[in-house]
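thread: overnight batch results

M.L. [08:02]
morning all. the overnight job finished for the chain we discussed friday. pasting input first so we're all looking at the same thing
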Amino acid sequence: MNRSILIVICDFLLVSLLAFSTVDINKTTTEGVPPQVRTTISTNQNEGRQDLAAVMRLALEQERKGRELLVGELARTRDAVSQQQALLGEREKQVTTFRQELQQKERQTMQLELQQTNLLQQYAAAQNNAQALSQKLLSTSTEAMVSKERLADVQAEIRKQAEQAAALQQQLGQLAQSNQLVLTEKQRLAGQLQVAEAEKRLVADQAARMQEEVKVERAEKAKLVEGVKALATSSERLAQEIQQTRPLAPNTIFSQFVTNRVNLNFWGVHSGFLGMESIKRSDTQSLLVSDGTNTVALCHVQDTPLTLGHPGTEWQGLTGTLERNTASTPIQSLSFYQLDPRIVFLPVTSAEASKLGCTVYRTSSDPYKFQDAVLVGAREGYYGECSFQIDLTTPQYVKMDHNSLKGFFGKFNPSRGDLVFSRTGELIGVMANNTYCVMIKNFNAMATFQCSQDMGSQKTGERLSHLYSLIAALPYKLQ
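M.L. [08:03]
and the structure it wrote out:
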């Protein structure tokens, strides 16, 4: 890790300590005096977070500039290596050409030496013939006087042999000159070959040094990239923590709900008076929620055609659709929450959620982070802010404080089926009645109905009656 990254991380830790060390004035209130709910947020924290964000952006900008400089230097180094390699290739071609020319000259020298040897042999043979003819002339001088014609032929043959000997001598001189020229050219090419090999070794050494420099620069770049990645990861984690701890305004939460809500449409058929079929339809609005593994649309049982009672109603058929804008998907099944069967889950696959194109909310991992929550009426379109209390006798529920109700839009009279959000925009749960909200932590089901037009084999009456008995067994304040 280089020095600049270390300085940025130290600055980041110092600003973090300053940003999160604001003294909570509410803790200094006198013991016995009820705490007052603060509706404003300290600006010091916001300013600290803004300073932190500015420091992080400056650090990232400096690292980006350093990375661009390193990338530019690496590109120039690569170009230099490429040029050196091209020059090395040209030197190798020149060395190959010189070697070929030297081999050709050596072949020419061997041919000339062979021709010289042949001419020397012919010259020696011609001298031998001349001596033999001279001896023959002396031995036959007497006979020459007898035969002049024969003597003339012998003399003509001697002149011819002398001319051939002179011609061979001239060729021998020319061959000697050519041999000298070939030897000179051979020495010149050998010198050029030595120079080329020296230049080749020099270029190879330079290329090796450049490659080592490239490796060093690559290693430094890799270290820099790892440092930038670590810094980016820390920044992203810090941004997530800031996002999770930053409360949203009730207007923002309601606006997000309006943007991402889905319509739930149900049609149910059961036997009515005198055995006649009775059709019941219900419509409501809800949202998609995920616990990290599964995704469902949820609502209160009163927002469906089904009712919990004794005796239970035998339903012959139950169908429904999830709709948003022009997208629609059928409801496959309907499940009752294990902790409170008044809450209904409608499982949704990933493909169906993508088709609907809305944001999938998460269940709140820490519902007690803030003292107040935001209630949204799914059907009537009202919303408001309300404090809640922890009731130790009902650990799966939170109690809404009606004395702190503050409506923002429309009639604000919380009732069963209202959705309860944390101040960070996560879903806490659904109002089981007008006072208690059942917290949604998972999607474990107590009972499930498969939606179809023929539900006679599912014994809906018996199962709905059993669920009603479970609700009746709850404490009176939760019923």
